[in-house]
Design a protein that fits this description.
about 50% helix
Amino acid sequence: MPRPATNLLDLSELPSPQRREVRDFFQFLLTRRSTTIKSDVTYRFTDLCGTLSWKGDAVAAQRSLRDEW
């Protein structure tokens, strides 16, 4: 998908070393953005989930824990 011409930046007025510096900085930002996007993926704990088979009274257990405080 081509970018619209309004998003382009004209660097032709800059000397060659400064144009290179701007391009390098732009590449740095793109690389940083791509690593940030990849690191935003969080670990899913679905493989650790399971079922609990407990044959006690949940309300009584909660009250006993609360009363310890």
